[in-house]
Amino acid sequence: MARERVQLGGNYRKLYVATALSNVGDGMSAVAYPWLATAITRNPLLVASVAAAQRLPWLFFTLPAGVITDRVDRKRAMVLMDSLRCGFTLLVAFAVLSEQGTLPAPDDVKNIVGTRTGLYLLLLAATVLLGCAEVLRDNCGQTFMPSIVEPQHLERANGRMWAIESAANTFIGPPVGSLLLLAAFSVPFFVDAASFFFAAALVALIPGTFRASRPDRAPAMAGAGAGAFAGAVGSPSWRAELAEGVKWLWGNQLLRSMAIILGVMNMASSLSGAMFVLFSQDVLDITPLTFTFMGFGFAVGSVVGGYVAPWMSRTFGSGTCLAITLGSSAVAHLLVGLSSWWPLTAVLFAVGTLLGSTWNVITVSLRQTIIPSHLLGRVNSVYRFFAWGMMPVGAMLGGAVVAVGTSVTTHEMSLRWVWFVDAGIHAVLFVFGSRLLTTERLEAARAAAAEPAPQPTALTQA
Fold first, then answer.
1. CB neighbour list of residue 381: distance below 8 Å, 6 or more residues apart
2. Residue 202 pLDDT
3. CATH superfamily entry for domain 237-449
4. pTM above the 0.85 mark?
5. CATH homologous superfamily for 1-212+224-235?
6. DSSP SS3 for 351
7. Which terminus of the chain has fewer CB atoms gathered within 10 Å of its CB, N or C?
8. In 10 A of CB 447, how many CB atoms?
9. Tens digit of each residue's pLDDT (9 = 90 or more) over 89-101
10. CA angle centred on 440, ends 435 and 444, rounded to 5°
11. Alpha helices of 317-341 — where are they, by DSSP H?
């Protein structure tokens, strides 16, 4: 153990602890923000708008953030983004504190009438700004690791980082957030802000500058101010670089199909996910603490899925596993819509996230294998644009489904409708995906990428 610490180094330990702290905060906010939204308003469209705002930056900011990451000091950008997230969260915390006497108890939000417009607008704006900071911070964080860890230790370093992110986000943060929420609505937001502050401080203690080496570009920013970021985005070549990534992805039929299918999958999941808190409160009749226990289904499935995915791919074939994920999602979401018992919902979530992790392991490994290394960052950003950019669209559709459903049926049934629509979309994806994403096509793509590039002949050199 002591030897491994020497190999990874003190800078890595600072980043590791900073990541753990910020992800505990993220886990708390995963419970606190949606629960606060339902204490401010019971309007399904307004609740869905908060969920959409959380993912909206992935639609409009993902592509430029990928270019900005290569043009700035990544450490300073991470410190700045976490500092901003601390500030935005403090604004929400003080706003909630100022109205805490008029807010309902966290376990009695179903009986509120009307909307607290001012607090809702602040929550919506803060959510968008937090999302923008998260997009850039995550992009910088993914490219920061090779600067502080030796290449031969990257796999171990990344594995430990992903493990602490998962544990903090799913096992530590949500139950802590639920307990703090029961104490007072404002408490988890103050603790969340503190987690961002200490995360920023730890990264700031890492010595050195961490700009990408780009001899063919204008000098990177000299400071971390807004003007420096504007200069980074405004360099005349960034659009051409981005266009190259878009062109490569769109020209690869397999990855193009995979990106579109994943985008529609995430749209369907967000359609039901945006209404999940209302569904939990009004159909499953659960409290914030029970909500956390039910959410453990996501965590358990994700962890188990990460271990069994390679075995499933070898045993059944990668394409078959992708088809199983699509088909099982349709069945699981249909059963959630029919269920009124939260333990069953938790089990269905565990199965769904287990297979979802299998999808991620197979598709991410495929992308890393077949995308040329000099295009990997840009093509991945375009891929994530499709994958994450459809989430806010799905969230708003979920709110619309409930709003329309309430006018023709009961409120409870309209909350079940989103799961039925979600299941129907996944069923259609299963039909198309099982034909487009076959094991044969995936293996052929891997084999083609493994072939050495043809060497130029004397004739072509002349």
1. 62, 63, 65, 66, 139, 242, 245
2. 94
3. MFS general substrate transporter like domains (1.20.1250.20)
4. no
5. MFS general substrate transporter like domains (1.20.1250.20)
6. helix
7. N
8. 10
9. 999 999 999 988 7
10. 125
11. 318-338
